[in-house]
Design brief:
The complex is a heterodimer of chains A (535) and B (318).
Chain A lengths: L6 H12 L5 H10 L4 H11 L9 E6 L16 H10 L4 E3 L5 E3 L2 E6 L5 E6 L13 H9 L17 E6 L4 E6 L6 H4 L27 E7 L3 E6 L12 E6 L3 H9 L5 E2 L7 H5 L4 E6 L4 E5 L10 H9 L3 H7 L5 E3 L23 H11 L5 E6 L7 H13 L4 E6 L5 H4 L9 E3 L5 H8 L14 H11 L4 H18 L2 E7 L1 E6 L2 E2 L9 H5 L1 H4 L1 E2 L1
Parallel strand pairs in A: 1-10, 1-11, 15-16
Antiparallel strand pairs in A: 2-3, 4-5, 5-7, 6-7, 8-9, 9-10, 11-19, 12-19, 13-17, 13-18, 14-18, 20-21
Chain B lengths: L1 H31 L4 H6 L5 H11 L5 H13 L13 H36 L4 H15 L2 H15 L15 H7 L1 H27 L2 H8 L4 H30 L2 H7 L4 H10 L3 H29 L1 H4 L3
Classes of the chains: A alpha+beta (535), B mainly alpha (318).
Family (chain A): Belongs to the bacterial solute-binding protein 5 family.
Pfam family, one (chain A): SBP_bac_5
Keywords (chain A): Signal, Transport
Chain lengths: 535, 318
């Protein structure tokens, strides 16, 4: 590298190249002008530039986790089939960008009152449903009300409990009135349940028809089997390069892998980690391994002996060798946890909190302090929690022996694990999907009065901070509060967090995507069909 | 022939009683499963209020016997109700799946039954030769391996290493019949491999059993060639046990194929049943199980009638 290297300029040049706006020769010329040696610039072109997206082709997408009993009702979205499909034929107010920032979808911009208790979203005037009808504020109000009120059967009800009213402000703006300030409301609008559906005259929504305002419209399909979609020409967004999208439900890991290898599909949403190394050897397949905010947790009841002693809790947190668990159970496809429920890819991640290491000696001395030497406890788990959940606990039990802890692994039936074991047994293994912001996650499972406070942890300072941070619009102050909350969770909380699992998916080598992949769902935030293209 | 008709009517009446008993058993079994449809549909993220609202909407707040009787009163008039999870008519939900399953079962049966019987006759004719041994070892190996394993082996050799057939069966409505037969060949072949051994060995055993009979010896003594002795003289008397085994295997082709469906991503009725059980969708579970039970009852009845018709001694009891 020679001369003065202008980083900002270089970043702009790389950006332009990535978006296909800068041909190779120009790229090298500008890079050299920015201070790079010509040979370096030439090599950089290969790394940084992405061909301009091309339109055309049918994207055949193998999806895991689909059930014949799934429906179009956004309130009961639960399987990947429903969620992934929703991101094609329906739209949301906001979306998580590939770089994990918050971006516009149906809403072009949003503003809040200073106390964050009232939010107004301006809607994109070009947005239309597949039926041709324009998307108006009435549709948004009806779509939100589907998840509110006493009669709703929506699983997103708890997300919107603070919303006291949603009112149309003309045809192209919607105002949310909240009982108390919530700085995260625009982030909440990315939740997969909150899809915008066409309103009926009576203020309910017509979810049954499958009409939506997303990038692709449904041509035909059957839940649990497959879906055919084609591009919605009136879509308000940028992208949707494929002409058609075929979503094929492939629940069997082997069927998924074979379909990709034989070229029956162009992309699969989940790769079996056990055979990942073999799949990577195929020259025609590219594997994407994307860190996510989805966590594996092991909550202990902080109000139940012996976990009511913080020393016992911390001893258990110190007796787990996270690296070994990531290597052997997650086959390396995971990000290490640090006993607070916030992943590096999520907003406000406190990067400077030191990693808790495996330290059986310190665990022993903590147990001695607590008068609980030779601790004997049971951990409840089931294979359905995640593939390898029982193995993980058995490995943990082996590791804990070094601290003199006798950890008994109780294997529970897969069926009904979350209704009969979770929240009922004092020490369990749990799998959590990613939530968009720390506030959502903490309010859901760590707030003192939360129905799912899975560790029964009631820390006054934590709860005070949680309420303060919720309505704080100053990002720097908020980050400080989340930093302190994470420290409290780590050092006083009742949850062992071994790791955050990565999204591991694969595509044929002719399928291209941009430089970043969103961490909200597998396959670029479940938006591969509208963001990716064929080479 | 009047006797046969009486038998059919009696057996059909018994069949209806059997179905009724089965429906009670299935209802209680679904009731005994932990969790209910509301919890299963709403998933891990449901709050107690959601679940309560869902239960009320689906009528789950009523006691179990009331719910069973209201289902039964509909079922006897041919109305199997609506799916609890998707609000679709059960008949509409099951119809296309049943057609797919019957198509695959027919496809497999059309290959497997003649193949098994011809092989059975051949191994009986060439008993204790190398051909007999090899045929036995091969068919027994295929019946002893789990279906999904056979499926994987076929995928490996016929779809991945030599790309002759597609690895997944993804069907669409506008497929021509040859295309359909091509796309579903591997699942059909898997099922052929699973059921052939049983039918072939029964054919072989039934024929060999008869070979010691005096009338076979008579046929041999009068100089009939070996194949004629078996096909003309032994086989007609061996039909009864063979038909029974064929019927059992045909029933298996319809009811026992969920693993094959999963491996080849074939949208059949087995997968529908598994999904319905996992969601506690009782009307769908009940309807599918009754279809399975009726399949067994009808095929067994057909087997018995077939055995009577092929045996003059049973047709004209003294």
């Amino acid at each position: 590298m020679t001369g003065k290297f202008n980083e900002d300029l270089m970043r702009n040049i790389e950006d332009a190249a990535r978006k296909g706006k800068l041909p190779r020769r120009e790229f090298i010329k500008y890079s050299v002008a920015a201070g790079l040696a010509a040979s370096t610039a030439s090599g950089l072109w290969v790394d940084k530039a992405y061909a301009a997206p091309k339109r055309g082709g049918t994207f055949r997408w193998g999806i895991h986790d689909g059930n014949t009993s799934d429906t179009h009702d956004p309130g009961t979205y639960v399987t990947r089939q429903m969620i992934f499909l929703a991101h094609q034929y329906r739209s949301y107010l906001t979306m998580i960008n590939p770089d994990n920032s918050l971006g516009p979808d149906l809403a072009t911009e949003w503003t809040a009152t200073p106390d964050a208790a009232e939010w107004t979203f301006a809607l994109n005037k070009n947005a239309s449903f597949h039926s041709g009808k324009k998307v108006t504020a009435k549709d948004v109000v009806a779509s939100m009300n589907h998840h509110r009120g006493d009669k709703t059967t929506s699983a997103a009800k708890s997300l919107l409990t603070d919303v006291t009213d949603v009112v149309a402000d003309g045809d192209h703006a919607v105002t949310f009135k909240l009982a108390r300030g919530n700085a995260d409301l625009p982030w909440l609008m990315t939740d997969y349940h909150l899809a915008i559906c066409p309103a009926n005259a009576d203020g309910t929504i017509n979810w049954e028809s499958g009409d939506g305002c997303g990038p692709y419209k449904i041509d035909e399909g059957e839940f649990g089997v497959s879906w055919s979609l084609s591009r919605h020409d009136g879509w308000h967004g940028e992208g949707a390069y494929f002409d058609k999208v075929e979503m094929i439900i492939l629940n069997d890991p082997n069927a998924r892998q074979t379909a990709l290898v034989t070229g029956d599909v162009d992309c699969v949403s989940l790769v079996e980690l056990k055979t990942l190394a073999l799949l990577q050897r195929s020259p025609n397949i590219k594997v994407d391994n994307v860190p996510s905010g989805a966590a594996i947790t092991m909550p202990m009841f902080c109000d139940t002996a012996p976990f009511d002693d913080v020393n016992v809790r911390n001893a258990l947190k110190l007796s787990i060798n996270r690296q070994e668990i990531i290597d052997k159970i997650a086959f390396g496809a995971a990000t290490m946890g640090n006993d607070f429920h916030l992943a590096p890819v999520q907003p406000y991640f406190p990067a400077d909190i030191p990693q808790r290491e495996y330290d059986p000696d310190q665990a022993k001395s903590l147990l001695k302090k607590a008068g609980a030497e030779g601790l004997s406890v049971s951990i409840h788990t089931a294979d359905s929690v995640f593939s390898g959940a029982v193995d993980m606990c058995v490995l943990y039990a082996e590791q804990a022996k070094a601290a003199g802890i006798n950890l008994k692994v109780v294997r529970e039936p897969n069926d009904g694990y979350y209704s009969d074991v979770w929240l009922k047994e004092p020490f369990t293994a749990v799998s959590w999907g990613s939530r968009p912001t720390p506030d959502v996650m903490f309010t859901l499972a760590y707030k003192d009065d939360a129905a799912w406070n899975e560790s029964r942890w009631r820390n006054p300072r934590f709860n005070e901070l949680l309420l303060q941070a919720k309505s704080e619009l100053d990002d720097a102050k908020r980050a400080e509060m989340y930093h302190e909350m994470c420290l409290l969770m780590r050092d006083d909380g009742g949850t062992v967090i071994p790791f955050f699992n990565n999204f591991v998916f694969a595509r044929g080598k002719n399928v291209m995507h941009g430089p970043d992949l969103a961490a909200s769902w597998a396959c670029d935030g479940a938006r591969a069909p509208s963001r990716w293209w064929f080479a | 022939m009047g006797d046969v008709l009486a038998i059919i009517l009696k057996r059909l009446a018994l069949g209806v009683v059997t179905l009724l008993v089965i429906s009670v058993l299935i209802f209680s079994a679904v009731e005994m499963l932990p969790g209910d449809v509301a919890e299963a549909v709403l998933g891990q993220s449901a709050t107690p209020e959601n679940v309560a609202a869902m239960r009320e909407k689906l009528g789950l707040d009523q006691p179990a016997p009331v719910r069973y009787l209201s289902w039964l009163s509909g079922a006897v008039t041919g109305d199997f109700g609506v799916s609890l999870t998707s609000d679709e008519r059960v008949a509409e939900k099951i119809g296309p799946r049943l057609v797919s399953t019957l198509f695959l079962a027919t496809y497999a049966a059309v290959i497997a039954v003649p193949l098994a019987i011809v092989l059975g006759v051949l191994v009986a004719l060439l008993r204790n030769t190398v051909f007999d041994r090899v045929a036995n070892v091969l068919t027994l190996t295929s019946i002893s391996s789990p279906e999904f394993f056979l499926g994987y082996i076929l995928i490996l050799y016929l779809a991945v290493k030599a790309p002759l057939f597609p690895a997944i069966a993804s069907l669409s409505k506008d497929m021509s019949l040859p295309e359909l037969l091509h796309r579903t060949f591997l699942p059909a072949l898997t099922m052929v491999l699973v059921v052939t051994a049983h039918m072939m060995r029964m054919t072989r055993a039934a024929i060999i059993n008869l070979l010691a009979s005096p009338y076979i010896e008579m046929a041999r003594l009068k100089g009939a060639p070996a194949w004629k002795v078996i096909v003309r003289h032994a086989l007609p008397n061996a039909w009864a046990p063979i038909i029974n085994v064929v019927a059992l295997n045909l029933a298996y082709l319809i009811t026992g194929v969920v693993l094959v469906e999963v491996v080849f991503v074939y949208p059949g009725i087995g997968q529908l049943l598994v999904d319905a059980v996992s969601k506690r969708d009782f009307p769908v579970v009940q309807a599918v199980c009754l279809i399975f039970a009726a399949t067994f009852i009808l095929l067994n009845l057909a087997a018995d009638i077939g055995a009577i018709l092929t045996n003059p001694r049973l047709r004209h009891p003294k």
